[in-house]
Amino acid sequence: MPGLVYILCALTSLACSAMLLRGYRQSGVRLLLWSGLCFLGLALDNVILYVDLFVWPDVNMAAFRRLPGLFSLMLLIFGLVWETK
């Protein structure tokens, strides 16, 4: 059951990313770009979490699976700071 939750979280993040990036393409508001890229990275983070816990449970990928989430949030913070200037 937890595996299904991780997959649903990844699909939800991917859907949010697609809608945000589509909104960016239509309007050109760059904050939508930063948010869409953040959600794309969070979807990747959930996929790596699923792979780590259910596909290869013997391999510890804890350090590697935190990188996409960290990079995504740093990207969003950069976008928020960049857009306020």
Describe this structure as you would to a colleague:
88% of the residues lie in helices and 0% in strands. The termini are far apart. It has helices spanning 2-27, 30-55, 62-84. It has one domain (2-84). The chain has 85 residues and is an all-alpha fold.
**Main sheet, how many strands, which sense, barrel?**
none
* Terminal Cα span: 45 Å
As a percent range, the share of strand residues is under 5%
The proportion of residues forming helix, as a percent range, comes to over 70%
Choose one word for the global shape: elongated
Give the count of structural domains.
1
| Overall pLDDT metric | 92
* pLDDT < 50 stretches: none
How is the secondary structure organized here?
Layout: H1 2-27, H2 30-55, H3 62-84
Helix pairs in contact: 1-2, 2-3
Quick tags:
3 helices; mainly alpha; 85 residues; 88% helix; 0% strand; single chain
Can you give me a brief rundown of this structure?
The chain is mainly α. The protein has one domain.
